[in-house]
Amino acid sequence: MKQSLKNSQSMPSRPWLQRLHIKGWASFLIFLLLFKGSAQICDIQLSTFFQNLGQFFELIKKMLHPQWSYLAVVVAPISETIKMAIVGTTIGTLVAVPFCLLAARNIAINRFISSIVRFFLNIVRTIPDLMLAALFVAIVGIGSFAGVLTLAVFSFGMISKLFYEAVETIDPGPLEALQAAGANKIQMIVFAVLPQIFNNFISYFLYTLEINVRSSTVLGYLGAGGIGVYLQRSLDSFNYSQTAIIILAILAVVLIIDGLSNYLREKLL
User: Fold this and answer.
1) pLDDT score of 90
2) Does residue 191 contact residue 174 with C-beta atoms inside 8 Å?
3) How far apart are CA 125 and CA 156, in angstroms?
4) Cβ neighbours of 157 (radius 10 Å)
5) What is the SS3 assignment for the chain?
6) Torsion angle of the four alpha carbons 75, 77, 79, 82, in this order, in degrees rounded to the nearest 10
7) If we measure between CA atoms, which residue out of 76, 81, 246 comes closest to residue 147?
8) 42: Cβ–Cβ under 8 A, 6 or more apart, which residues?
9) Angle, nearest 10°, between helix axes 144-167 and 111-126?
10) Which of 116, 124, 180, 198, by CA, is between 20 and 30 Å from 260?
C-alpha cells in the first residue's frame, strides 16, 4: 500500500526530448543558420559599417548646430504635411469602415464575400507608397493633392486590416442577444460592434496619422508636397543645419500626436 502510494506521488518521467530541450535547441540552431544564410545572401558586412562609422558621427556633428532662423520657413510646409496626413488618414479611414465589416468573418454575410474583400485589401497593401505617389503625381500633377491621395490609399489598406482583426475579437454575446431580439445587421453593428471597437478605432486612427506624417516627408521627394520637398533640398545642398530643423519639426509633430493618442486612450478606457 505504501509502495503504491509512493509510486503515485512520484514525478512522472519526461521523455529525453524534453529533458534535453532538443526542440528548443534545434529551433535556435535553425534560426542561426537562417540568419547566417540571409546575411550572406544580402552581403551584410559589419566591418564596413564600423569602418565608415566616423562619417555618421561627422554628419551628426554638422546637425548639432541647427539654423534656427530656418524655423520660420519650415512652419508652412510642416503645416501642409500635417494637413495632408489628417485629410488622407480621414478619407482612408472612412472608406475602410465598410470594407472591414465585410472582411470580418463574424459579421460578413458569407465566407466568399469576406475572402474576396480580404484579397482586395491584400492587393492594396502590396502596392508600395512610393509607387502610389509616382502614380498620383502622374495623374494629378505635382502638389499636395497627390500626397493626400497616396496617404488615403495607404491608410485604407492598413486600417482595414487592423479594423477587421479587431472586429473578429469582439465579445459575441451582445451580437447574439440583439440577433435573438430580432435586430437587423445595421442595428447589430451600431449597438454591438462599434461600441466594443471604438477605443481601438481611435487608437488605430492616431497611429496611422503618426505614420502618415513621417511617410509624407518621403513622398515629398517625388513631388507629393509637404515638408519632404524642403528636406530633399537641404540634403541635396548638404545644408545639414537646415536638415536638423526639419527633423526637429517632424519630431515635435510626432511627439504631439503620440501624446494626444495616449491622452485619448486613457480617457476612453
Assistant:
1) 92
2) yes
3) 9
4) 21
5) CHHHHHHHHCCCCCCHHHHCCHHHHHHHHHHHHHHHHHHHHCCCCHHHHHHCHHHHHHHHHHHCCCCHHHHHHHHHHHHHHHHHHHHHHHHHHHHHHHHHHHHCCCCCCCHHHHHHHHHHHHHHHHCCHHHHHHHHHHHHCCCHHHHHHHHHHHHHHHHHHHHHHHHCCCCHHHHHHHHHCCCCHHHHHHHHHHHHHHHHHHHHHHHHHHHHHHHHHHHHHHCCCCCHHHHHHHHHCCCHHHHHHHHHHHHHHHHHHHHHHHHHHHHHC
6) -140
7) 81
8) none
9) 140
10) 124
Neighbours of 260 (CB within 10 A): 13
Sign of CA dihedral 195, 200, 206, 209: negative
Residue 91's pLDDT is what?
93
Amino acid, res. 46:
L
Amino acid 5: pLDDT? 47
Query: Please, what is the end-to-end C-alpha distance for the chain in angstroms?
Result: 58
Cβ atoms of 212 and 88 closer than 8 Å: yes
Per-residue model confidence (pLDDT) at position 16:
54
What cell numbers appear for 184 in the block?
Answer: 437587423
**CA 76 – CA 267 distance, rounded (Å):** 32
Cell of 208: 496611422
Handedness of CA 195, 196, 202, 208 (dihedral sign): negative
Place of cell 463574424: 106
